Amino acid sequence: MTQLADRTKLIKPSVTLAIAAKAGKLRAEGIDIVNFSAGEPDFDTPERIKAAAVEALRKGMTKYTDVKGIEPLREAITEKYRREYGLSYRKEDVLVSCGAKHSLYNVLQAVINPGDEVVIPSPYWVSYSDMALLAGGVPKLIPTGEATGFRMKPAELDAALTPRTRVVMLNSPCNPTGACYDRDELLAIAQVLEKHSCLILADDIYDKIVYDGFAVHNLVALCPGLRDRTILINGVSKSYAMTGWRIGYALGPADVIAAAGKIQSQSTSNPTSFAQAGALEAIRGPQDELPIMVREFAKRRDTIVSLMNGIPGIHCLKPQGAFYVFPNVIGLFGKKSTAGKQLQTPCDVADYLLEEAKVAAVPGEDFGSQEHIRFSYATSLEDIEKGCKRIQEAVAKLG
Ligand SMILES: Cc1ncc(COP(=O)(O)O)c(C=O)c1O
């Protein structure tokens, strides 16, 4: 056996990708799986964006670019933040990376020293804690639940912050819960953060995917006093259906951005040249596709929430953003499958649903929950109806 580095033992492979792979394998065997596990829009990337990348390739944009990303793209990102949130960043304050995941990774590598605490409201996106561990940090979770709509209270944040806190992760709208902080809630959180000296990573990747007229607020715009300590993370994956293109970015204090860029320069170098051309078109071009996609997601959200709540033992909140629901399944714990297995954890329930209902969803454990399962509704209405019917039938078979 090869002796591997200790850091490989700190982390686990992404459970989301593992479930997607298991579902994919069953599908390849000819089994009709309804897949609620994918964390990506099922829409295709808009044609204008594809055309921009093709054009870039034709024109010979096939070489290395500036490690930090091409200037026009970094400028377009600063213009976007000026237009949408009234924030003025310079192109030097922007680092374009291979997806927002990579942006988060680079920034955490740039700011965490061994033993530094990384405060993470839970449930959280699976990669936050593992990325913190890989950087030598210590994840410190703040549990939240249905009672507060999966939003942490300012006092809970206050209690979690210590002199060892280096970073606080914020993610609104949140993956996996879809929870969003409104203006007053974000302001109250900002007021707690102002009393401390930690850095804040605001992962705003779902900021364009909100429903019922929810008004998204930007932490730095709301509280300019936090600007020197906040790194904004965003990308094109979710808003423009560009997950495979791998373009994300960070905006923040020039020294953090330069350090993260140095790390990027010794690992991936620049993100793919022509994907940057596509991202530039995505951000600068007409924004007509987004509201169409969001309207469609809203219909699906309403459908899946109502169908889930019709299944005995499952309780589902209606989220205001992103494209996930995170129903509570403790009502199914203690019940027995036809094969005689007692369901005791979200993993048991997800496994049962995959085996019995041929429905793939991601168990809550790796998101920090012992009670929930994540369903992505970035799939057709038809599949949502079919999948929920199958879940209902499978649940009815439990003894
Ligand atoms: C909360 C959150 N942040 C970041 C990412 C990473 O997105 P990408 O690397 O595709 O830009 C995801 C993807 O699922 C996410 O859900």
What is the H/E order?
A: HHEHHEHEHEHEHEHEEHHHEHEEEH
As residue ranges, the low-confidence spans are none
- What is the assigned CATH homologous superfamily of the largest domain? Type I PLP-dependent aspartate aminotransferase-like (Major domain)
- Please describe the biggest sheet, giving its number of strands, its sense, and whether it closes into a barrel: 7 strands, mixed
Structure, described:
This protein folds into 2 domains: 7-44 and 289-396, Aspartate Aminotransferase, domain 1; 47-284, Aspartate Aminotransferase, domain 2. Strands 2-8-7-6-5-3-4 form a 7-stranded mixed β-sheet, sandwiched between helices. The protein has a 3-stranded antiparallel β-sheet with strand order 9-12-11. It has a two-stranded parallel sheet with strand order 1-10. 40% of the residues lie in helices and 12% in strands. Strand 6 (199-203), helix 9 and strand 7 form a beta-alpha-beta unit. Helix 3 (47-58) packs across helix 11 (273-284), helix 4 (71-85) runs parallel beside helix 11 (273-284) and helix 7 (154-160) runs parallel beside helix 8. The chain is globular and about 60 Å long. With 399 residues, the chain is of the alpha/beta class. The structure holds pyridoxal-5'-phosphate.
Architecture blueprint of SSEs:
Blueprint: H1 7-10, H2 15-28, E1 34-35, H3 47-58, H4 71-85, E2 94-97, H5 100-111, E3 117-122, H6 127-134, E4 138-143, H7 154-160, E5 165-170, H8 183-194, E6 199-203, H9 219-222, E7 230-235, E8 248-251, H10 254-265, H11 273-284, H12 289-309, E9 324-325, H13 346-357, E10 359-360, E11 362-363, E12 373-376, H14 381-396
The chain binds pyridoxal-5'-phosphate.
